[in-house]
Amino acid sequence: MKPHRTPVPLASVKILDGAHELSVHNLQRRDDSFTLLYTITPPLPATAEHSPVLLALEAMDDVGNEYFDWGGAYGAAGDGTHTRGSVTAQPALAAKACEIRVRITFLREGEEHPCHLVLRTSATKP
Question: Is 89 exposed, middle or buried (0-12, 13-18, 19+ CB in 10 A)?
Fold first, then answer.
């Protein structure tokens, strides 16, 4: 039996005053949008016990296009060790974009907690 390997994230950053770590694991392109799949460790608190943590995404690529939040969802992983989520932005990533600079702002109890990531896309520089 092969040992379970955790895939290397595309990017990771400490969030919410350093209490959690956000790791982006995948960037999925679509015809009209793109989606980031992520985990947060340790998991975000359950909303029944605490106020929910909301997030919003803004991004800009290296050729000057802007992208804006189009919604997402998150929830606790089955084993309870982390939160799994996705967030989608529009429009679709430009074909010539090689990287995007992403700002994700977490809103918790009326306070904003922004973080910044740089993600490579599947395009390559000439």
Answer: buried
Predicted confidence (pLDDT) per residue in 16-27, tens digit = 999 999 999 999
> Please, what sign has the CA dihedral across residues 117, 59, 86, 51?
positive
Residue among 104, 100, 106, 105 nearest 118 (CA): 100
Q: 33: which 2 tokens?
A: 């949008």
Q: How much is the pLDDT for 5?
A: 53
Inter-residue contact 12 to 24 (CB < 8 Å): yes
* DSSP per position, 69-125: EEEEEEEE-TTSS-EEEEEEEESPPPTT--EEEEEEEEEETTEEEEEEEEEE-S---
